């Protein structure tokens, strides 16, 4: 056999380098694809875990408040907080509620809306942003009155805060008041307190800048109060059936909204004792006429 090297077909060095580079490229491509798959799986697991945790916290929150709604019903015909006249269509058992949490100062309900929660009050405006009525840490928090309100519901304006949850929990459903039709369906709420029950006759819903102080707690004069109410109603997202006059007590419901950075939505109403609710429509009409004069 002739082993003449001139007849051989050797692989040139340049070709070897190209083959090595091709193999390396294929190796890194496979590694990249595998890493991408693993990263996608990791993100799926993490997001699934986060959603599961969020759902668990939601369930924890809703179960707690569902139980409270049932346990706090008190059908006694008399007792602390009974309105004059003795007629209460619905009564909350505040002895039970305050035994569970002494920070409980009220209960607010919007008929045919998701709003049906206790209202808490403590010496700061941070704790109940991340804690339930029970004291358990939970991002849903609970509704709470401003710590600057020292005379709850006897101050000229009591402010109540709550999160704007995507599932309409807490104050998420307040967003409905950006439409006139929603207001027409839900023009009032009910506030239960240990000292008496009130209808909240809603007057305005306004977009506010959270970077500045936009809510008033007290007023220097009757003119100051009237000017405040007129300012709110002139900017309101709905037209109310009534107004407020000096001497009325206000309740302001405040939550986040997202039209702009750090925006707030403020729904303001006046307190009307439930014992006077029979005359509510007539008074509202008179006050609306007075406001137009």
TrEMBL record:
| Keywords for the protein's UniProt record, in alphabetical order | Hydrolase
* Start-end of Low complexity biased regions: 1-12
Record GO terms (molecular function): hydrolase activity
Q: Does the keyword GTP-binding apply?
A: no
Q: Where is this region: Disordered?
A: 1-23, 72-94
Q: Which SUPFAM superfamilies match?
A: Sortase
- Entry superkingdom: Bacteria
User: Which Enzyme Commission number(s) are on file for it?
Assistant: 3.4.22.71
Q: This protein is called what? A: Class B sortase
> Is Hydrolase one of the keywords UniProt gives this record?
yes
Residue ranges under compositional bias (Basic residues)?
13-23
